[in-house]
Fold this protein.
Amino acid sequence: MAQGLSGKRILIVEDEYFIAADLKRAFQQDGAIVIGPVGDVGLGLALAEAGKLDAAVLDVNLEGSNSYPIADRLADQAIPYMFLTGYDGWSLPEPYCDAPRVAKPFTVHMVLAHLGQLLGSDKAS
């Protein structure tokens, strides 16, 4: 197990069950404490406000809504986040186009590597 995620509290906001389950399993195997996963903006906001988080992984499109309000709340708290999306960076609204992003389809290894970078470690898995 890499030290990058060990004991880190990671929020997962993803509305596709199998993606959310795969991410949760991989993060836990890497030692993370997974918060969620949840698949809607309201629950994501509640969890973002509820407790200390080290980072978050946000699907941009959540059943017709988007996760930007969650990203804003995390940014206000200086909690790093990354987007999972099929959208290119240029297609995201201006405040989010430079946010860390992993394009769908992706591998769990890619997400772990990006998450490790967000948390300041060289690699997460």
About this structure: Residues 17-29 form the longest helix (13 residues). The first strand starts at residue 9 and ends at 13.
